[in-house]
Amino acid sequence: MLDFTPAGTARRQAYGNVVVGLAMLCICVLASSVRLFSVIKYESVIHEFDPYFNYRVSRFLTEKGFYETWDFFDSFTWYPLGRVVGGTMYPGAAWVGWHPPPPPPPSPPQVCVFTAPLFSAFCALSTYLFMKEVRGQGAGLASAAIIAVVPSYISRSVAGSYDLEAVAIFALVFVFYLYVKTLNTGSLKWATALFFGYLYMVASWGGYSFIANLLPIHCLACIVFQRVSARLYIAYAPWVILGALAAANIPVIGFNAVLMSEHMASFFVFGLLHAALAIQYIQQMLPPRAYSAAKKLVLTFGTTALAVVMALVVSYVAASPTFGWTGRSLSLLDPTYASKYIPIIASVSEHQPPSWSSYFTDLHISSLLAPAGLLLCFRPLTDASLFLLLYGVTAVYFSGVMVRLMLVLAPAACCLAGLALSEVTSYLATSLAAAQLDGDSAQKQGKKAEDGAGGQVADFGLRSTADKGGKKGAKHAKKSASADSGWISDTWRPLPKDVAIVGLILVFAGTSLFYKHSVYVAGEMYSAPSIVLQSRRADGGIKVFDDFREAYAWLSYNTDPDAKVASWWDYGYQTTAMANRTVIVDNNTWNNTHIATVGRAMSSPERKAWQIFRSLDVEYVFVVFGGFIGYPSDDINKFLWMVRIGGGVFPEIKEPNYLGSDGNYRVDDQAGKALLDSTMWKLSYYRFADCGPMFGAPRGYDRVRNTVIGKTDFELKYFEEVFTSEHWMMRIYRVLDKPNRDTKLRNPRRTKVTKKARSKRRGASGALS
Amino acid sequence: QRVLVLLNDAGLEQSHSSFLKGLGARGYQVDIKPITDKSLQLKSWDEWLYDKLVILGSNKELGGAADVAQVVEFVDEGHDLLLAVDSQVSEELRELAQELGVDIDVKGHAVIDHFAYDSQLGAADHAAVLADSAVQSPAVLPGGLPWPVLFRGIALSVPADSETAFLALSGSPTAYSGKPGVAQTDAKLAGGSLGLVALAQLRNNARVAVAGSLDMCSDAAYAAAATSRTGQSLGAVANRAFCDAISKWAFQERGVLRASGLSHRVVEGAEAGAVAPERYRVNDLVEFSVQIHECADGACTPYKADDVQVELQMLDPYVRATLAHDDAGRFAVRVTVPDTYGVFKWVLEYRRLGYSFIELTETVPIRPFKHHEYERFIVQAYPYYASVASMMAGFMAVGFFFLY
């Protein structure tokens, strides 16, 4: 028999807390460890592109200190413009990599490599707290258990993925938790905490503008649904002012915090909230008749004032070419904007809209449960659940615009799914308990067994504790549902015992499948560092392609420390971080013209490219080439973007010239003439035909494009091959100097030397001849 | 320094003994070989056996291991070459000259001048011309040309837009290139663009002299006296002085500029006094200085010129300033760096006819102000300070009245 005396309830409460604590510990360990596949399968390296920048800034921070980093002017990138790194970066992630000098044994890479798994655990914790505020412990545990392994989040937070998003998703959820906590308690203490949380979020990621718009939307919804309260005011109003100050203090945002349209909504709703409160206040003060007269008066004046303000805002906004929005934000509001006007944004694969299948791969069961969670937000509709609801709906929209924002959807989907899962489980479990209460007295033992199992595996912990917390939640729901005279059903009826058992088994099976899928995805799909590649050999062994690091090491050991290296912007961060050489453009795509100049050089014939590179003092050019081993994301496949970006600034580059006669991009003998003449073609395919990459393939067979290339034998006049990595993935060329002698100049008075003498020449005669 | 002299035939050693002795007298270790020598070697493994090369060539080709490519490589690695040919020039030597940026006319042609010829030596074919239009460069010919140069040989030409080659001695307005004794109505090469002696200063500062005449530097020419078409004596010829000048220039004994001690420092700014700082701040006042010396005849003296300029470039020059010198070879200028941050470089490019090129670059990034380096408490900000203070005071007042 359950003990319903106060002492018994307190004891059960205490047991429950211990179980919840253990479960959360397991969830955190799980969240971290599932992200360690990349270290186990590959090695402890920094992944991909952007993390290399954060790593480099962390290194700088460690060596030079906080203030130097604030004023970090980087002369190694964007040569010769340089980049004011301190003023153009979100430092949140880099701060994490800081450690006091002199470096203790875990050197910066180790700190940076394991930042993401650590913050994933923090994220699971803050998800628990957030959902606990929204609905209760059960929903919190279920959501934390889901977000710990949701593939979408894993994709950006495996060990080594030292990216902004790795820390920012934690910050995002934590800010939501603080907001909801402030909303529920109405305490200034939590409002202060919200400010600090928001400060870290703003420092971490440009995605802070999602919060900056979501909070006003929530506040507006509260005003519209007449849910204005002092608690809302405490949560929202200080955040607007202090949040704007916080944002303005991060150099990369600065005055944008009050100038850009992204931030306007919060101020607008701030005013509206005051108006709503004023109306409430006046309504209390005045007798009804006076109130209606005052209302008329205020409405007239208010509308006029509002119209004036709106006119001012509109005229200010219309004066700026992008209507006060940044290009990236505009591409969110109008999904076709980027592909039409900003090829540099459209060229990034993570800025493409996601495919339907990626929702299932990345969210799995949460994409099924989330809609149910949306419905459950209405049952009952509290301020907090309204917030979750709005978060879910807006995140779904944004995720549809670009793949990258799946990451914002992931916590929302997990919270909603966790809510649904916990409600379903608690409903089923309560039915079971009710049946047992009615039926026999053996449940005491069963209860014990269930509690014992709870702490061992996170999954079981989820079930048993969701049961506990859920009961409370269900009771709560029952109460408020009857008070609300809810629109689904206001009477609670237990399910039959066997239906409940089957239901529980189904839930268990579903979550198990989700875990299996997530662990598989974490291990196989999202752990590749992309700097080291692997493929399986026929005999089952693993072949490692370490060409990138090989080439960067070559650069760092064999070139002058002052040498400038040109490549497509994708490899800029890696070159500065790994080869420690000056680059022309990098992944911080702040100067479109500069990138277009490199695109133009790559798309131009050799001589023109040579002139452009010389004018930029470039000494080495490298291209990434996959035709030898079949690595598909090489520069030839990216080439059309170079043409588009180059052509966007320099109209002499015309995309149709690079396409075959049938209008397709192809590299065989039907390829466009400009493509065959371009420097990118020559640097990629130089000497390619002579090396015979694959047994039995025809001469000059490209394994990525699966065709014989259009032009096989040619010489380079203005570039000199200096290094080609083992699998030809990186090919480094030296830009030749100006010739030592002026030999081939036009001279109308010259009488040519006869052939006979020339035939005696042997060997090359030096630069450019 | 070792000089290899390659002779078309053994007789040249006799006929050019003054010239060759002159080389020896200037301290060179002269090694004389026939051009066709089967054992001819310019380098052994990776080491050059000679520092300078003189080719007194004509119809024969290079023998042994030497060929055009190797001679070009010799020059490309910073060695000097003096090449003299005559009208019987072989195709190989023509090709060699062409590789070095000087075009020699075809075999059999000669420079003819029916007006400015020497009436004693060139009465028959008018091909012994008296040339007096020499290059105006104190580095090549310090005192100019006092008398005409007696010249019998083949014409040269230099591409109009060549940055490396120039004519040291060019034809008179009436000179042209043709076959002696054959009437012709048109000449591809004529007048001032017809070269008699061409010099080239390559980008690595190696020097090449190409003379269209072998006789020009012979003992006979040294001793000759010029007589004009009308039989009037023009006094001596300047051949000895000219040949000496050409060989001295070609062997880096004249017109060599040495730049050293490039230095820059901040005069006024964040790091005032810092010598060769890692970077400047925008609007710093900085000083750029460099030592330039001119080396001639084995001695280096301070270079004196008022046209040495330095630029501060980031894609384009932002600042171009003329350096002032102190008569002791130190060239310096003070410049306020632009109000633009970026990776700038000092570029000093000095190219004057006959002088060796000076190309110096020094990269110095210019950084923006640090967060604490901006001016504070500016007058324009006082209204804002006042508004903040009044706001705080007002809040206090309202709070006080509201609470008490």
From TrEMBL, chain A:
Domain STT3/PglB/AglB core residues, every copy: 564-621
MF-aspect GO terms: dolichyl-diphosphooligosaccharide-protein glycotransferase activity; metal ion binding
InterPro entries recorded: Oligo_trans_STT3, STT3-PglB_core, STT3_N
Comp. bias (Basic residues): 746-763
GO CC terms, sorted: endomembrane system; membrane
Region Disordered, annotated ranges: 445-478, 741-769
Pathway(s): Protein modification; protein glycosylation
Catalytic activity: a di-trans,poly-cis-dolichyl diphosphooligosaccharide + L-asparaginyl-[protein] = N(4)-(oligosaccharide-(1->4)-N-acetyl-beta-D-glucosaminyl-(1->4)-N-acetyl-beta-D-glucosaminyl)-L-asparaginyl-[protein] + a di-trans,poly-cis-dolichyl diphosphate + H(+)
Identification of the protein by name: dolichyl-diphosphooligosaccharide--protein glycotransferase
Organism name: Chlorella variabilis
TrEMBL record, chain B:
Domain OST48 N-terminal stretches: 2-250
Any one of the GO CC terms: oligosaccharyltransferase complex
InterPro entries registered for this protein in UniProt: DDOST_48_kDa_subunit, OST48_MD, OST48_N
Keyword field contains Translocase: no
Record bears the keyword Mitochondrion: no
GO terms, biological process: protein N-linked glycosylation via asparagine
Recorded metabolic or biological pathway in which this protein acts: Protein modification; protein glycosylation
Lipid bilayer topology: Single-pass type I membrane protein
Domain OST48 middle: from-to ranges: 275-404
Residues passing through the membrane, by range: 382-403
Alphabetized UniProt keyword annotations: Endoplasmic reticulum, Membrane, Transmembrane, Transmembrane helix
Localization per Swiss-Prot or TrEMBL: Endoplasmic reticulum membrane; Membrane
Superkingdom of origin organism: Eukaryota
Binding partners and assembly: Component of the oligosaccharyltransferase (OST) complex.
Function of the molecule: Subunit of the oligosaccharyl transferase (OST) complex that catalyzes the initial transfer of a defined glycan (Glc(3)Man(9)GlcNAc(2) in eukaryotes) from the lipid carrier dolichol-pyrophosphate to an asparagine residue within an Asn-X-Ser/Thr consensus motif in nascent polypeptide chains, the first step in protein N-glycosylation. N-glycosylation occurs cotranslationally and the complex associates with the Sec61 complex at the channel-forming translocon complex that mediates protein translocation across the endoplasmic reticulum (ER).
Family that this chain belongs to: Belongs to the DDOST 48 kDa subunit family.
Protein's name according to its UniProt entry: Dolichyl-diphosphooligosaccharide--protein glycosyltransferase 48 kDa subunit
